[in-house]
Recover the amino acids of this structure.
């Protein structure tokens, strides 16, 4: 691994920046509920196979997706991938402020795209809050968000599976610094 002037290794930067792209965020979401090949992802995302393969390589290099087997297709072999979202040994690179900003911008861009595709305004729940609460209330909020994230990831199914609905959960919770 190569270390840059800030002392950050290239693998750390690439794994952190790997998720800082709206298409890669969509790929990770799809691979949470199903093992899929690059061709299947390309069809679902309505992008080229080459583009999907490139983004899969970026995610694989960052250890954010893993090979989940192979299948024979029309005389060839296609690799299948999955997003091991619950892997306890997942890499936790150090985040620079620039890396966090890139990720938040990608997350915001993807949220705007997803919101434009919502089924009905009546099924949307939006909230925005910057306020002061007790530490106990904050701990409860964080626990609820973590539980919602675990539940939706654990119950994810392959795209368009019978009996499923297409949903979005985007959350960012953090304690603020005190000004002044």
């Amino acid at each position: 691994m190569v270390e840059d002037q800030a002392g950050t290794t290239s693998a750390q930067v690439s794994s952190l920046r790997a998720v800082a792209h709206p298409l890669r965020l969509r790929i990770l979401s799809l691979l949470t509920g199903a093992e899929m090949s690059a061709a299947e992802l390309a069809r679902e995302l309505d992008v080229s196979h080459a583009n999907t393969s490139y983004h899969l390589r970026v995610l694989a290099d960052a250890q954010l997706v893993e090979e989940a087997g192979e299948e024979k297709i029309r005389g060839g072999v296609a690799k299948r991938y999955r997003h091991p979202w619950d892997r306890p040994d997942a890499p936790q690179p150090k985040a620079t402020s620039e890396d966090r900003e890139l990720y938040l911008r990608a997350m915001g861009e993807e949220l705007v795209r997803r919101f434009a595709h919502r089924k009905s305004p009546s099924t949307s729940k939006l909230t925005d809050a910057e306020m002061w609460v007790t530490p106990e209330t904050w701990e409860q909020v964080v626990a609820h968000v973590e539980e919602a994230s675990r539940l939706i990831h654990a119950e994810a199914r392959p795209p368009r599976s019978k009996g499923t609905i297409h949903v979005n959960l985007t959350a960012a919770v953090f304690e603020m610094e005190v000004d002044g």
Notes: The chain has six helices and three strands.
